[in-house]
Amino acid sequence: MRRKLSLISNLIGLLLVMQIQLFGQNNSETPIHPRGLILKKEVPGLCEKIQREPYASMYRNILQEEKRLSKTASGVYEVSTLAKYRSFIYLLTEEKSWVNKVYDNMLTLLADTVFVKNPLSKGLTRAHVLREFVYAYDFVFEGLTVDQRQMVSNALYDLMSSVNNNMGRMANYNIESNWMGVRYGSVVFAASVLDQVYLDQSSGAKNVKAFLWDTQKRLQDHLQAAFTPNGWFVESLGYHAYDWQFACPAIIALQNTSSFNSSFNLENYAAQLLHALDQHMTSIVSLQNGSTYGIKADLADDNPNAGLSQFAFGMRLLPDKTRPYVKWMADYLNHTEVFQHDLLLLALYSQDVDAENPEKGGHLNYIDETQGIVFFRNRFKDQDDIVACFNTSSKRFPGHAGPDNLTFRIAGLGNLWVVGAGRTGQVAGQTNLFPEGDWEQQKERHVESKLIAYHFEQDGSGFAIGLGSCMGVKNHKRKFVANYSGQAGAKAVFIVTDSSTNGRTWRLNTPEFNEVEVLRNGFLLIAPNGSTLKVVVPGQQDVNVQVGKVRYGGSTMEHNSGIGFSGNYYGYNKTIDIACDGNITVVMTMQPKGVKHPRIDL
Fold it and tell me: Quick one: pLDDT at residue 337?
């Protein structure tokens, strides 16, 4: 009998050894957390940071955001974010009461049948819940009991499997789509943080490493397809920022997970990401949007809102030579008079890097020749910085393409001047040249255009020339010039020269909060702060100008909050049309409040 027991005991021991070898974890050891976004050894430094400014203010804002969410959070989207905030507070305080609150949030999420337990529900929501849930598990791990860890780990494994298997309703499975970055980013993050030792094997093998090895390669494939060699995301700036929210935690976790690859580095994994924030630095002006600070060009079917979380990630991910500029941008957007509660900024903000003005790094201009995007910026200083963008949309990708060939955008002197159509394929909201006929209800035409020339000056000035139209304009060629020299007596001069066979209407779209004054030779835009943009057709005295309006976002209802500006949201553009006959040259000058515009002779 004793011999039989001994044989059984030896067999059990052998199986345990095999399990340890297979999964790389020892059941007798408690896994180390946190290890996803931050490492356990970094926690004491965070606890010390929040005792002084600016980190103390960041932490107070996090506490206020937790308080707000605790009163308003209802759906899984907000409840999962609330769990993340509460777990982060626990990490910094070790107060047991936060563990109970987080665990209650977890139980609420795990009981949800609309998204969490529905493998065919919208994948973007499931992936968001998965990512936030993983943050929470990682941060609050030491406060959970063994039984709680087992229950949560198995539930997270099932949710991870669900997101990995399909993205449900409305999914875009093109490898370059942000949907695939969200999908594989959240799964890699989860697989990096989950603990094999707590997974139940009774209902079938659950292997975290299998997910990790598979999906890190799929995420890598997505990043290679979605980002050009110069770091441009093919679906434009806003979708880049969204994709970044999922890809970056995954990449940081891969860096932190030495058992995956002790020599892992960004350059080998996704070299194009080394320049992935160059365009964000050049394009974003520190203007207040709907809730925080940051306004950018609204290319494709995007909106102008921008944020600072991508710069928080950049301080951890990007090379040493880039981090001083990234830190400057984070400071530039982090306004104390506006409620900032980005825990990523607190967690990743570097104390060891000195901020440096991006102008010193050559970031007044940005060019991506693959996609045909050109930016011209006059300086990096404050909300009066001026940025102009010219877009040729040289390659069209399925998904968020938008009818924006040969469009331009302008922001500066404390205002947003020239915008696009928002989240819609309708062309009426675009700033462009249009043919004769009924095009007001026309949808996008996926026509590729071409950037044929560009030039930059040291002060950020320059020009770009493109060909091609998705408006139905034949032989459309546009030259866009930005001049910040001040020699003409204006803060900025922009010249747009169009030639075509059938162009009949030159349209500029501006947010509805700007006033329009019609002039004999053009029109004057007046910003809420009194600064002005004068638009004239040189050599003409009786220009036919028509002012109308179009809904920002067209007929799109979902995720269409309008244009966020100065703490409010605006649902309409003002359309300003100038009649033309194929060819037209338009000169724009920008001046602060009370300053006259010079006459520009061409």
Answer: 58
Q: Give the model confidence (pLDDT) of 47-91 as tens digits.
A: 999 998 888 888 998 999 999 999 998 899 999 999 999 999 999
Bond before 34 cis per omega within 30 degrees: yes
DSSP state of 301: T
What percentage of the chain has pLDDT greater than the value 70?
92
Q: Select from 348, 295, 360 the least CA-distant residue to 324.
A: 360
**Sheet with 462-467: strands ordered across:** 450-456, 462-467, 477-483, 492-499, 584-591, 532-536, 522-526, 515-519
Strand, helix or coil for residue 455: strand
pLDDT in tens, 89-100: 999 999 999 999
Question: Measured in whole angstroms, how far is the alpha carbon of residue 431 from the centre of its chain?
Answer: 23
Question: Cα–Cα distance between 244 and 227 in angstroms, integer?
Answer: 11
How deeply is 512 buried, as exposed, middle or buried, from its count of CB atoms within 10 A (0-12, 13-18, 19+)?
Answer: middle
Whether the upstream peptide bond of residue 358 has omega within 30° of 0, thus cis, is: no
* pLDDT tens string 482-523: 999 999 999 999 999 999 999 999 999 999 999 999 999 999
**Lowest-confidence segment of 246-250, 304-308, 565-569 by average pLDDT:** 304-308
Strand-pair partners of 495: 481, 587
- Sheet containing strand 387-391, edge to edge, reads 365-368, 373-377, 387-391, 407-412, 415-418
Question: Which H or E run contains 298?
Answer: none
Select from 242, 169, 182, 256 the least CA-distant residue to 215: 182
- Tell me the pLDDT of the chain averaged across its residues: 90
The tokens describing 340, both together, are: 């900032």
Q: What is the pTM of this model?
A: 0.91
Q: What pLDDT shows up at residue 12?
A: 35
Q: How far is C-alpha 513 from the chain's CA centre? A: 25
Could you tell me the sign of the dihedral formed by the alpha carbons of 528, 532, 536, 539, in that order? positive
Q: Within 10 Å of residue 546's Cβ, how many Cβ atoms? A: 12
Q: Give 599's DSSP letter.
A: P
Whether 87 and 33 have beta carbons less than 8 Å apart is answered as: no
**Contact assessment for residue 295 and residue 566, using Cβ atoms and an 8 Å cutoff:** no
Q: Which amino acid is at 187?
A: V
Q: For residues 154 and 205, is the Cβ–Cβ distance under 8 A? A: no
| Closest CA relative to residue 498, chosen from 521, 479, 482 | 479
User: Running DSSP on this structure, what letter comes out for residue 395?
Assistant: S
Cβ neighbors of 554 (< 8 A, separation 6 or more) are: 421, 422, 423, 424, 425, 426, 428, 429
Residue 201 amino acid letter: Q
